[in-house]
Amino acid sequence: MDRVSMKEHAKERIEGKIFMLFAIIIIVTAATSAVSMILGPVAPLMSLVIGGPVTFAMEYIYLNVTTKSRMPLIEDCIIGFKGENFTRTFVGYLRYFVFTLLWSLLFVVPGIIKAISYSQMFFLMIEDEDLDPADAQRQSMAMMDGHKGEYFMLWLSFIPWILLCIVTLGIAYIWVGPYMGTTFAEYHVRLMKKSDKKKIVAEAKKMAKESQEDYAEERAEFDAAVADVKKSVKKASKVVKKKASKAVADAADSVEKTANEIKKEARKSAKKK
After folding, report:
1. Structural domain that includes position 174
2. pTM over 0.85, yes/no
3. pLDDT tens track, the chain, 273 positions
4. Do 234 and 157 lie in a common domain?
5. Quick one: DSSP state of residue 128?
6. Are residues 98 and 187 in the same domain?
7. Any residues with CB less than 8 A from the CB of 31 and at least 6 apart, and which?
8. Are 121 and 55 within one domain?
9. Same domain, yes or no, for 155 and 270?
10. Which candidate, 194, 167, 189, places its Cα nearest to that of 10?
């Protein structure tokens, strides 16, 4: 997809909305920072709880800006916390975090690839209120198949802007933040138009079926291993009991022999006296 046209469209869409978008970013950042300061040591745990609703809200705002050119509202900040959205976004973010972390343990590159694969999750959940996080994750993977490279290149194209934010001590982020968010929302919109929705859903269902089959197979192997361990433990227990019984019997015989010898020595001593 054409990065230049996507960015131009994003610039057009955020025109006249920059300060409202930045105000929302400030509010969200201030709120999350305040929560972190109040909670202290448990702040990282809380970030997992609110990370989903916050991400959902920001992507909802940018998606509306790029598709409807709608002026964002302050109340849009809490849409991720409303009703069932909270549970869906919390589970979705937790899945995103855990799966990305596990892949990152193999090496950094697999983690980046998976993060890109899951990049469309929240956009899909915004567009379909009935879509559960697991299906959104699988559909995102199906959508990004063959597009991870171009998404990565789109992200890399913002590095000069990120450096500008650093040089200006964050001042440039007033414009760069909304610009980046709207561009990635525009990428999603164009990718959806380019993708075959039925094919994506079918591929996601196939992934789910394969996951269930793999789980069933792994569960059967696990159950078999547990059964083998139980048999081994039972067998070892019998052997231990047998050896223990023999050891006790031998010890009893030894004690009895020692006692008899002591008695004999005692009798001999008594006769001498």
Report:
1. 3-195
2. no
3. 788 999 999 999 999 999 899 999 999 888 888 877 887 777 778 888 899 999 999 999 999 999 988 888 889 999 999 988 999 999 999 999 999 999 998 888 889 999 999 999 999 999 999 999 999 999 999 999 999 999 999 999 999 999 999 999 989 999 999 999 999 999 999 999 988 877 888 878 878 777 766 556 656 655 665 566 677 767 767 776 777 677 767 776 776 777 677 777 767 776 665
4. no
5. -
6. yes
7. 77
8. yes
9. no
10. 189
